[in-house]
Amino acid sequence: MKVAIQGIPGSFHHQVALLNFGKEAQVLPFMSFEEVAKSVASGAADVGIMAIENSIAGAILPNYDLIDRYDLVIHEEYYLPISHQLMALPGQTIAELTEVRSHPMALLQCKAFLSNHPQIQLIDDLDTASVAKRIQEEKLRGVAAIASEIAAETYGLEILAPQIQTVKDNFTRFIFLTKEKSNRSEAANKVSFKITIRNEAGGLAKLLTMLADKNLNLSKIQSIPVMDTPWDYAFFIDAEFAAEQSYQEAVEQMKQRFGELKIFGEYTSRKG
Question: The pTM is what?
């Protein structure tokens, strides 16, 4: 199994790959989400792992566009609890630190803890795990990273303060992407799709009313402009359904009454 991820070993994407596909999987690291999408679309990877939303920061909107442009299929989803650790080369204390480097979102999510240490300069970086790797390779003393526990293990760093995120119930939703559509599981109860609504008064309201009437529970809706048609919008929607017949009726009505419909995946909701 070849698994494409964004980031390097020790990243949260790497952690999801290990948890779901095991150490025997061949992990292909890429620096951008688009490279992940390309690798799956070309067949270089069997599956791609992509973060799609965070319970604090919200949706990663460009990733919805990548799924659409590369005609990828959402095969599965996975919710990872995000735990941030402060780590540095062994033998140091927090009082000795002069810099903390990490992804801007990680720094933001640890703001309360970091405010108690005003002597430490906060520096934005590209990736959580890459900072940990650089500290290990360049033997940077006085510099700490905020990253995952697996990053500390991977690069031999000491955790000076565990779980420093301000909000403890912080989850990131990851999706597993494939090139080809597989047989749908009987347990499937969630769908991700894009619909381009015709430019008419109350179009979105009518769509939402119809979905509610068919007992589809919307968990996510994001709008993006249609590039070729100014002032028209497409909507990326995640919805859960309980009754198969009602769901199929909703699909038919969307096709007939509302506009162009593209289903990205039908799968099992993993939200606890």
Answer: 0.89
